[in-house]
Amino acid sequence: MGRDLSYAGVMGRRNEIMLKAVGIDYRTYSTGVLAFDYEALMAEAGDVQEIRRIQRETHVGDTPLWELGNITRLVRTLAPPGKGARIFVKDEAANPSGSFKARRAALSVYNAARKGYPGVSAATSGNYGAAVASQAAMRSVGCIIIQEVFDSRGIGQPEIVEKGRACEAYGAEVVQLTVGPELFYVFLVTLEETGYFNASLYTPYSVAGIETLGYELAEQMVAREGRPPDVVVVTHAGGGNVTGTARGLRKAGATATQVVGVSVDLTGLHMASDRDFNRKSFTTGHTGFGIPFATWPDRADVPRNAARPLRYLDRLVLVTQGEVFYVTELLAQLEGIERGPAGNTSLAAAIVLAQELDRDRIVVVQETEYTGAGKHPWAQLTFSCKNGITVERGDPADNAPGRRIVLPEDPAQLRVKEFPLDNIRRSYLRNALSQAGDRRLTPEDYRFLADEIGQDEDQVRSLLKEAAASEAN
Amino acid sequence: MSDQARPGDWVQIHRVVLPPGERAPQVPPDTQAVPLEMWVKGFLLGAAGPGETASVRTVTGRVLEGRLVGIWPAPGHDFGAPVPELMTVGGEVRARLAQGGGDANRG
Ligand SMILES: Cc1ncc(COP(=O)(O)O)c(C=O)c1O
Question: Where does A252-376 have alpha helices with state H?
Answer without folding.
Answer: 274-277, 287-295, 321-335, 345-353
